Amino acid sequence: MRINYLFFTLLAIVGITFSSCIKDEALNAEADILKIIATDSIQRTSPKIENTNITVYVNTGTDLTKQAPEFIITDGATISPASKTELDFTDSQFYTVTSQDGKWSKKYKVTYSTAKLPTKYNFDNYEIRINSDDEEEKYFTFFDYDEAGIKTYPWTNANAAFYFSVGEDATPYDYPTTISKEGYDKSAIKLTTKSTGFFGNILKKPIAAGSSFIGQFDVQQALSNSLLAIHLGAPFDKVPTAITGKFKYESGSTFVEVINKRVIETPGKKIIDKFDLYAVFFENKTEGKNIYLDGTNKFDHPNIVSIARIDPSKAIETDSWIDFKIPFVNINGKSINIQKLKSDGYSLTIVMSSSVDGDFFKGALESTLLVDDLEIIYEKVK
């Protein structure tokens, strides 16, 4: 079941109301897992929920045969197997959530994974994932393999929130984050700034920058506060010194921004867009609880150890591949705690965007960034 939260938000905005003659409150028709809670001592980071696929990242050596995750679900809904039921997660388990009114259900695939963050990304590995209802998703998802050969999905994006803007008939290539088969070596990731259309203009969110990042994206949160919807970071047990790779970039010709609550378009390439590419290394626990960065604190959270960000003067337009090497710069004078590093006490995120101010719905339509052969350079720690 696809519940379009954006649609319901828009109904409220334009003032559509339901008939007052309905005396009894309708039963809830939603059937969602909102949160999964696993044992803190085995988790390496917060569980990742992507539509109907849920991944719980746990420590190497965790006994997967006896796990009993707890689920927070939509009010009034039920879940089967029941929350806190002990199951064997050597293989993925499936849960069905049924809405309060009994008319809708959603099947979730829950996987416990010991995969670690890879250090090399050539963006040749991508797929259209099949959800637990055997339905194809609408866009590509990138995957990779860690040093132990375990398949993992480190990259995420905001394509799920863009679904309403493009409609049912869109192809995976119509989304802001997709693939290019004209990479430096085979495929590359392709990020393009797109118009969000009529409803996006109503919400004063007229563009969606193509973006990809290591972390999670909360679609529901995106409707109320998009900066809080990005959950940045995944555990990383190495000390990063630089990120390297190759890029191509072209600014779009019509720059779009919101000024005094009005959507303003400036055509003719009078304002040149810029892309952004950066990485952040940070301590991922505060008072024993897992944390992530978001759009409000990604550069100034007190847990940040170092940042690698492309110099704006080097984020140039080019129709040929340009090599980049961006060093990590320590910003808080923090030293690395080796024991904490070995026990997954640090996280890393990498963020790429076709418009540097895309977080604020500001950028040029069709600005396009291609990235290939991305690599995390790191120090070997004994």
From TrEMBL:
Q: Which residues form the Putative carbohydrate metabolism domain?
A: 135-377
Q: Which Pfam families match?
A: PCMD
Question: Could you tell me which InterPro entries the record lists for this protein?
Answer: PCMD (IPR025112), Put_CMD_sf (IPR038653)
Q: What is this protein called?
A: Putative carbohydrate metabolism domain-containing protein
